[in-house]
Amino acid sequence: MQEYLLLMVGAILVNNVILARFLGLCSFMGVTTRVDTAMGMGLATTFVITVSSMLNWAAQAYLLEPFGLGYLRTVVFILVIAGAVQFTEMTVRKVSPPLFQMLGIYLPLITTNCAVLGVALLLIEGRMSFIESTVFAFASSIGYSLVMVIFAGLRERLALAEIPRLFAGPPIGFITAGLLALAFMGFSGISTV
Amino acid sequence: MATGYGRIARDGLWDNNGVLAMLLGMCPTMAMTTSATNGLGMGLATAVVMAASGGLVATFRGYITQEVRIPVYILIVAAMVTVVDLTMNAYMHDLYKVLGLFIPLIVSNCLPLARLESFASKEPVLPSLADGVFMGLGFTLALTAIGAVREILGAGTLFADASLLLGPAFSFMEVRVMPESMGTLMMILPPGGFLVTGFLVVGKRMIDVAGGKAIQMGGAHAV
Amino acid sequence: MNKNSSLYHGLVLGAFCLGFGLLLAVTDALTAKDIAARAMEDRQNSLAAVIPDAIHDNNPVVDTILLDVAKDEGLTVYLAKKDGLVTGVAYEVSGIGYAGRIKLMLGVGADGRVLGVRALAHKETPGLGDKIEIKKGDWIERFTGLGLGNPPIEKWKVKKDGGQFDQFSGATITPRGVVGAIREGLVFFDARKQELTQPQPPQKVNEVR
Amino acid sequence: MMIETATTSAPYTHSAASVQKTMTTVILALVPATAFNLYLFGWPAVFLFAVTVGACAAMEGLALLISGRRLMPTLGDGSAVLTGWLLAMTLPPWAPWWTGVLGAVFAILLGKQIFGGLGQNLFNPAMVARVALLVSFPVAMTSWVAPHPLFWTGTPGFLDALAITFGGQIPDGYSAATALGLVKTGLSMGQTVSQSVGQLPDLMDMGLGLRAGSLGETSALLILGGGLFLIWKKVITWHVPAAMLGTLFVAATLGHLANPERFTDGAFQILSGAAFLGAFFIATDYVTSPVSKTGQLIFGFGVGLLTWIIRSFAGYPEGVAFAVLLMNSLTPIIDQYTRPRRFGRTRRGEPLAPQGDK
Amino acid sequence: MFLLLAVGSLTIIGVVLGGILGTAARLLAVKVDPLEADLQALLPGSQCGQCGYVGCAQAAKALAAGDAAATVCPPGGKATAEALAKRLGVSIDLSDHVERGPEYAAIDEELCIGCTRCLKECSVDGIFGATKQMHTILAESCHACGKCIPVCPTEAITMRPIPVTLGTWHWPKPATAH
Amino acid sequence: MKLFAIRGGIHPEYRKELASDKAITALPMPQRLRILLHQHIGAPARLLVAAGERVLKGQMIAQGQGPVSAPAHAPTSGYIESVSEVTAPHASGLSQTAVVLVPDGKEEWAPLPTPLADPLTAEPQAIRDLVAQAGIVGMGGAAFPSVVKLHLGTQRKLEMLVLNGAECEPYLTCDDRVMREHPDEVIDGARIMAHALGAPLVIIGIEDNKPEALEAMTREAAAFPEVQVRPVPVQYPMGSERHLVQALTGRETPAAKLTADIGAVVHNVATAQAIHHAVRFGRPLIERVVTVSGRAVREPRNILAPIGAPVTALIDFCGGLVGVPARLVQGGPMMGQPLPSLDVPVIKGTSGILALNAEETGEAEPGPCIRCGTCVAICPCGLVPLEMAAFIRTDNLDGANNLGVTECLSCGSCSWACPSHIPLVQYFNYAKGMLKTKERDRAKHERTKTLTEAHRDRLERAAAAKAAAAAAKATTKGTPPAARQPRAEEPAEA
Ligand SMILES: Cc1cc2nc3c(=O)[nH]c(=O)nc-3n(C[C@H](O)[C@H](O)[C@H](O)COP(=O)(O)O)c2cc1C
Ligand SMILES: Cc1cc2nc3c(=O)[nH]c(=O)nc-3n(C[C@H](O)[C@H](O)[C@H](O)COP(=O)(O)O)c2cc1C
Ligand SMILES: Cc1cc2nc3c(=O)[nH]c(=O)nc-3n(C[C@H](O)[C@H](O)[C@H](O)COP(=O)(O)O)c2cc1C
Ligand SMILES: Cc1cc2nc3c(=O)[nH]c(=O)nc-3n(C[C@H](O)[C@H](O)[C@H](O)CO)c2cc1C
Ligand code: SF4
Ligand code: SF4
Ligand code: SF4
Ligand code: SF4
Ligand code: FES
């Protein structure tokens, strides 16, 4: 139990997908202008990461590894992810048009959200068991969502601040993200996964 | 959109620069720029993949249906990445050892896919190829610049290990700018990536403003 | 065929998979041998740093035994032999650094002295903890020739902890991890000396892919 | 007779409060602790303090010039000086001069002016600088000295002090570890907490400040006095300090009870590091903390808990600065969820049901 | 052998995935676009034609198709433009949108010859009068579409700004000076 | 007696001592009175007189029209010089229609409506008629026609009338003086109102910085068990009716509801006095007590001034100004209107005329918000002024609306306290105005739509009728063609 806890803390705070591992940054910069949108994106991504990580784990364990097809790993993983994403996209479009409208072109881009493939590759690199990898994938995406929401909150305040014109928009976003990463460095050393 | 190759080149290298203007491909931009050399290597590898996949998608675009287009694009990028990965491993092994880890991640870089969606799926083969090349070079430019700044501020060197990437002939590029003890570690740690990128976007804006252009406010996704 | 049927989409994607799968398979087939050779060279190169050429006439990369240790997968030990006799061994050891595990390759002579140490992988802070890399400094060379008696085991620590090895200014955790890993590695050698230097005949040759 | 028309609406009477007065009061509250500590750590500390405060004011002026704003009402409001003051109080007292200058760049330019200046920044400027310096220069930022009061024997004179601050060399034999640093190093060497704490000054001395540490760390009692002064002056309220110190104390006590060899006790935790300074002067920074009282309680709770977690489990010995920055990042969200209940409405914003008759 | 396996497995994944996606696309397709109806509801509906389209319905169609900008409808003003932009999910910059202040059309009593031409133009029946008699415009009804102006043979109709009264005056936005 | 806490609030410097000891003195009749037709909330009154006419004191010169309106009366006898546009006592500086009356000094009364002999047993409607005829509007500042509020008891079961003697605005002492000098009239007026409302209880809330008023009122109320006088704490804005009711009863008026919905109707003490005059003597509201104060006034006073008297006359009566004031204000300093000039008339809602010097106003250049949270802590309505202002500054009116800007009282507490001197209230006033404008635009838009549809329907009907007529014509050949005469309502074109 304790090891799973440590695994989760590590994945959420210490080696945060966005701030420490630099995965999923495009959506981090793009879909965080409002807290509710960021939350929606976080949820969608959490779903995709968790599901596709399980599928990918299975693909690795039952297809790629036994048959020595390691070189197909990237291709197979990304296909699985693409399928999972597009399925999610269509479901969201049908079930919640407002959410779909908000997430706009980002839903298809979850496919190229590095976080999804990145987490899958990390699982394989870490040689984790199925349970471990599911826990890790879920925790990583929680870390992703957490930072997305925090950052969206910060940006809502930035929208009201009188930022110098040269810095307004993306630059101040990057700088804020930098300071957030600085703050998160406080967690470094908590667990060493 | 683009008319002529000059326009494509300008767009890719500066006006619509993938990193500094469109804010795409942020992950490698942050992760692979702890030094100028890393940025250069990553950028070049990405450029190769972008050019090849742009050409391929433009070639096959007649056959790709709407519903499966994203998987197909990704498949193409992933295949190109794997080919580059295997080839480099076998025949450019020293270079591979420097870049090895980064290469699979090109697959999930948003930039190639975004260009396939917005350019190669609509334009003929040659312009698509050119778009890939120039977008890739623009990407390389940005990454190298970010890497250079981070490396200088953080470690006091510039293009350290460039000879590993480009061959011994390029060892002249490896410069020490200031003593290592003056390095501001933060710059090569995660916060530095964000900070330097932010400041480089400001730099691009200043140049644009000096050139009489308006400040570009959003990234690729600003509607 | 109806462009909107599910089968059609399936076939389109399938066709692309087929085509690119073929391409990848061919590329793999063409490059597999070279890649394997490169991997072997890499392994040889890294072993060469911890096992001097002079003491062996075999290829330690393929001359290995698998020791069962507490770890689940066992520990691969590379053997250096001259005239069939084990003159030295090399194996991986690891310690906890500032930002995670530091993996080292440790070469030990038959007499229990360190032949050489190299960092294989680590995540220490650039500029602070990465001085353990041979590229960044010769700190890692100072262990060569030392053994458990020299200095005595209680001195196998960084100076800050009362041992005899220098830490780097501002970074104690990394060297502490490295020194600790080497110390444990040597203790391990002492404990399993018999098995290591007189390996049993059914040697397990590790398949290198 | 014509009188200025319709430019500003009522009210036409105002309280005497002003930004400048607020900042000046905070500075005043810091004076006793600062003076005592400057005395305790001698000339090098005086130099570093002057450099840091001066550099912060200079950076503020520079930013105003660059952005083409008027210097005066802004530079005169005292916020930059206060930022510099607080930053100086968290630096190792004998750190070289450039830490102060670079700190001012981080604090005022990166932490404040890029966001548009006073009131617009999301993170506490002084803590941004403090953490950026710590992360960037771990060596310089963790070189502490034991107190060497002015004019005592063994204390560096004016010229020696110049060499220390501007030459960057702390002579051998002066360095000492902070309480938290000692415990942390001890733990990493396998010592138990009680062994490490045994080497420390007793709590009384810690309260008075007779120990190694930053200007703002050592004399907890004077800081406490300044904090109470601020509460009395109604510049701050009790919510943040009480929530922060309370949480830190409770968390530490629980940890200590569970495993005394692994965790230090509550009194030790709140008396060491920048806990008091943080609670009264840093976590209370208006700009970067929530505006409602409920929000402030949550904020203080968060800072206290994160401080304990980071101090006890993470790699860095100092937790307050990181905890403050982390909670700063949550402030907008806390603000959104802790808005007061509107008159005549339920917490969730629906109109109340009419009460009264029946 | 391995080659076959590789290519085979990949192809199968592809076929299956493509099939699923194709099916999903059909099953889950959103049928009609309610956008156009929504947009039309937001437009004034006076069919004045100032937008350059035949009427509000066509304007709505163009908006839905993305051929027209949210600022298409001049009489709708800023409020309509904002509402349209919100519904379309786009952001528009209205800061330099010069809005003619609120106006109404008025007939100069001296000039009106009672030709009744203007009366036929007004889509809100805001003009009253009979042949050869002076016409008046009910200011409350007029929505300033301006269609009555060009048809008047004596140029008796002009647009006038609706005056600010104590009832409509409000405090100006404070100047931000710092 | 138990009091209940209200949220937030402030304690500004009250400076009531400037005028509180000055007894009410009548203003000598000025040369000219300018009586505005629109001195109240609601529809303007309709003019009943013309230039050149002679009017008598108390004669109705303009009649209320519509459900929410009030008449105006001549404060004295004299001639109507003209009916003209004059600058209104309003921040906008816009002008308004006024009857200009030249007093003839005869003070000749017009015949007044018959007062009620025993109002406390009379029909409520009789009371309301007298109040309506007297043109009484709320004297607490809002100038809402009082008769409308006296109807509140007809649909609801009311528990009490609350008499608002808080007078929480700094400087103002007119209510204080009225309570001190005429407690009997105030209490009688209150009892009449309570009777009209059907409320069994009268509670008079007076801030406890007015001990003399409390004493006088308590003494006078002793005779009536249903009248309670209660001191309330000095806490601005205690005078706000929702807050006063909350302080007195602990009940919180739900948003978008009236205090009457929780059983209490609130009236100002001076309103009660005016109602006493109207019901007992049939006298209309033609004069009121105005506090003239501020350090830029030589000799602050409480003046009984006829409605329509020029503000200059009041100031002159106080010995004129000392130097150039920084601000001229009508009403209190917290919620008053800035006066565009001294050349404006007194209206029914004028409780004070203040001439303030720079030191008193304490105005300073606004700075950025430092998020000190003071405004949040003191807003009596539980709003977040800093956030609303930030939204409004960035033109996000919807954002401010969601945070409840329309529920802001404009009490001014937040602006008063803000250390950065941000004109918060002005942001909110601006936003409220903009939101109202938008609402009006939207309504107009709706109206246009309905009208257009009606127009189209009519055209279609006309076309159908024409077709039918043509068909009919075809069948009944030889009938002479009907004279085609386009009528205004029915243009013949399809
Ligand atoms: C802007 C600036 C930054 C500096 N940063 C550092 C630093 O990060 N570390 C450092 O040791 N010295 C720094 N210095 C100081 C000089 O490098 C100084 O010469 C050096 O510390 C001398 O120490 P050394 O002889 O041990 O190298 C800095 C000086 C300046 C002006
Ligand atoms: C950004 C940062 C990175 C660090 N990286 C390392 C590291 O790579 N290796 C290490 O041993 N210590 C590292 N440290 C830890 C500190 O330098 C720590 O104070 C030191 O290791 C403890 O040693 P001391 O006993 O000399 O104070 C790092 C600290 C910081 C702030
Ligand atoms: C902030 C604020 C303060 C007020 N202060 C007073 C006051 O001190 N005295 C008063 O009579 N009315 C005051 N009012 C007006 C009351 O809310 C209420 O309208 C009035 O008492 C009703 O009585 P009336 O209709 O007789 O004027 C205030 C209103 C607000 C919004
Ligand atoms: C009670 C109080 C505490 C403050 N604390 C800090 C602080 O910790 N760090 C800082 O840079 N400024 C502090 N300031 C000053 C000011 O708020 C700060 O410079 C702003 O964050 C700059 O926008 C404080 C001010 C007050 C009134
Ligand atoms: S301009 Fe506006 S009102 Fe006129 S037809 Fe076009 S959309 Fe309708
Ligand atoms: S401008 Fe003329 S046609 Fe248009 S609504 Fe007004 S009166 Fe009618
Ligand atoms: S003016 Fe409005 S926002 Fe400000 S304190 Fe009063 S009620 Fe609250
Ligand atoms: S009182 Fe003024 S400075 Fe303080 S939070 Fe409110 S608006 Fe900002
Ligand atoms: S490169 Fe875009 S999400 Fe990683």
From TrEMBL, chain A:
One of its GO terms (cellular component) is endomembrane system. Keywords: Cell inner membrane, Cell membrane, Electron transport, Membrane, Translocase, Transmembrane, Transmembrane helix, Transport. It is a multi-pass membrane protein. It is an enzyme of class 7 (translocase). It holds the Pfam family Rnf-Nqr. InterPro entries: Ion_transpt_RnfA/RsxA, NqrDE/RnfAE, NqrDE/RnfAE_oxidrdctase. The chain crosses the membrane at residues 6-31, 43-63, 69-87, 99-124, 136-154, 166-190. Coiled coil: none annotated. Its EC number is 7.-.-.-. It is found in: Cell inner membrane; Endomembrane system. GO terms for biological process: electron transport chain. PANTHER family: INTEGRAL MEMBRANE PROTEIN OF SOXR-REDUCING COMPLEX, ION-TRANSLOCATING OXIDOREDUCTASE COMPLEX SUBUNIT A. Belongs to the NqrDE/RnfAE family. NCBIfam families: PRK05151.1, rnfA. The complex is composed of six subunits: RnfA, RnfB, RnfC, RnfD, RnfE and RnfG. Part of a membrane-bound complex that couples electron transfer with translocation of ions across the membrane. This is Ion-translocating oxidoreductase complex subunit A. It comes from Candidatus Thiodictyon syntrophicum. The gene is rnfA.
